[in-house]
Amino acid sequence: MSIKIRQLKDLARDTRGAGFVEYIILVGLVALFCIVAYQAFGKAVTAKVQDQASAVGNIK
């Protein structure tokens, strides 16, 4: 067996970075979810926060 084929087989069996890759994928999915949620609910949440700020500001 040639050295190149052996190196490729060893590389295919190497799982040292698998946990890191899974973590990065998970972080990417969470970030994507947050972006979608912000786009869907951002204006409504901003309006509610402003309403509450006005209500607190009007208390004397």
Describe the overall structure:
The protein has 60 residues and is mostly helical. It has a domain at 24-60. It contains 2 helices and no strands.
Report a brief summary of the structure.
The protein has helices at residues 3-13, 18-57.
* Helical proportion, percent range: over 70%
Write down the Rg.
Answer: 25 Å
Mean pLDDT: 88
Instruction: Provide the structure class.
Output: mainly alpha
Low-confidence stretches: none
Shape call: rod-shaped
**Strand runs, count:** 0
The major pleated sheet works out as: none
Count of alpha/pi helices:
2
Could you state the oligomeric state of the chains shown?
single chain
Order of helices and strands: HH
Portion in beta strands: under 5%
How many angstroms separate the termini? 85 Å
Q: Could you give the topology of this structure?
A:
Layout: H1 3-13, H2 18-57
Give keywords.
single chain; 60 residues; mainly alpha; 0% strand
